[in-house]
Amino acid sequence: MAPSTSSAVTLRVNGEKYTLTVDHRTTLLDALRERLDLTGTKKGCDQGQCGACTVLLDDRRAVACLQLAVAAEGREITTIEGVADGDRLHPVQQAFLDLDGYQCGYCTPGQICSALAVIEEHAAGWPSAVTEDVRAGAPALTADEIRERMSGNLCRCGAYAQIVQAVARAADQAKETVA
Hints:
Layout: E1 6-13, E2 16-23, H1 28-35, E3 54-57, E4 60-63, E5 76-78, H2 91-98, H3 108-123, H4 143-149, H5 160-178
Helix pairs in contact: 2-5, 3-5
């Protein structure tokens, strides 16, 4: 008898548990979109290159097209649908809206999920490839730092200047909230 190519998995998505039977080859992206009808996470390149499918796994960003659904079991998955607090937009979402950090909107969910992680990584003092002195503590969150940290997300409309401004504004608001 051939071994089964499917398994039942329980995924914790946006604070809710879902039990699904999935083929072992099913990506997290396909499980979210096709099985859970969470279509905010977009399928772009399906190769991990564009970032349109970025979600948060245990508060760290991940491209869902390269993550198998069975490997996400037991982890907390946050999609764009889980970012807002009810009807109140998350400050990152509000900054994207206020500063036109989106054009067609296709990449926006992945951009926002990445921005959430960028702000957390920076607040934790993590350096990036453009951080001048990694021994000096947390670098300033300059436009260059933001661009580098967001470089895994492509915007085909070219809204990069507004995206950088939106991330900077949200990061400033996060600092004010903590202070």
